[in-house]
């Protein structure tokens, strides 16, 4: 459901793309009924568009990149009558895809499924769930959306003999009642956590959180965007546990960025979103959800099938080398395939949906002359956050659906897939000996490990696996119990984006992650560039989400589609865009804070 700009805003309604200068939202949405009819018509061959012809006659779109943002843009545009071709370098789905382990499927079984990192859908995601509802799946009333399930059990694991915290599930696995051992461990862990951090530091963190909640948008962008999270929470000189939990885990463990350079605006916004969605405010579902099958099976494959059925053409194995400029517009994209064969793709409109490290390689002098602001992309920073899967002969005891290894040097997080997937491992995957998969995200590749004494970037794949196994045991078996006996391990699989160079004894990463450092917002591009037919989509583009996530990428794809619709004078209804929920109860305090910020005063609670 859409609204006009003069309607009263609601946190539960989508916020649509910006109108053309001088036009009201109501004018932009005029003709929605006609747009509905357009999307039902058969796709017509594109007309050749000469320079100077009316924009509305231009219908061909080239999307460069088939990850989350590219697929989202293609989805919105194909449903609005455009002819869309997607060119992708590696595999559709980007970082969200499944990665089959070659040659592991035996006797008719499918290959074991690796992942760039397990899929995690916080409740405050709104754009991605909307897309998923619009991807049909036989037997699912709500399409792919029905393949998400609520995360009901997570373990916050500590090492050095400290008790873990298991939340929120305290029942026995069979649902037969309260598990007293789990309850005892959780209460003990909570008591230890509270006792480990001095009361003054707990009070400090509560104060910092309240300051952020009541900060105006002006202060968040004008002050907190420029302040590192480490400084904001005043971590210097504080206790080891305060620094480990409040400073390090909330940055490296959750968003893969170093606390000394992480933007307070971004980290604070994510903390607020998790808190509010946990209270059921502005959420599409529970606090966190995951998929009930490998990502490709549960989501990407049905999505691609649907888009193909609507007319999207996919060209995989095509790397973009350059964009050709003529008469102030993008005339064509130059591509090369794995065999070295080159080709040129022409279109009326171009959506650049490539990762930032590849998109900025296209910033030729001719392009920067047309839009100098794009040069800010060269200053954006990337970090590593990649997946590792341990395939197990038996399902381990004492591991919940999701585990945060809080004190691990490499900031490991893991999910036990048997607790989530509705699949029979021995029947469906591998050689019949694998019964489970422990899927990890490695978020810190720069801190020395506990076995090799080297960071993950300087460890061979075998050493990475050995180190991760040891760091998990260091947390799960620090009280003497056996959770991960070595005989449990069948095999492992490291994200193939990580490539080891034995000569230099260093890894390279073909798929890094853009992270929000202080001051990076101003350097990130908007969806609409100053080049009339070029639009940007990707997790690094300015979005309401403001974080490199599936949600941010999806939102950017929608925003790029809306900007293109606007430039093309399309009568089609813009794609819906959701903002993070903001409690209206805090509006008064935020208004006061905006006044204080403009006069140079601190936040009212910033004492």
From TrEMBL:
Positions with biased composition (Basic and acidic residues): 1-10
Xref: Pfam families: Amino_oxidase
Highest taxon above the source species: Bacteria
InterPro entries, sorted: Amino_oxidase, FAD/NAD-bd_sf, Rhodanese-like_dom, TAT_signal, Zeta_carotene_desat/Oxidored
Protein's recorded name: FAD-dependent oxidoreductase
Organism of this sequence: Actinomadura barringtoniae
Annotated ranges, domain Rhodanese: 46-80
Region (Disordered): 1-24
GO molecular function annotations of the record: oxidoreductase activity
Classification via PANTHER family: AMINE OXIDASE (PTHR42923:SF46), PROTOPORPHYRINOGEN OXIDASE (PTHR42923)
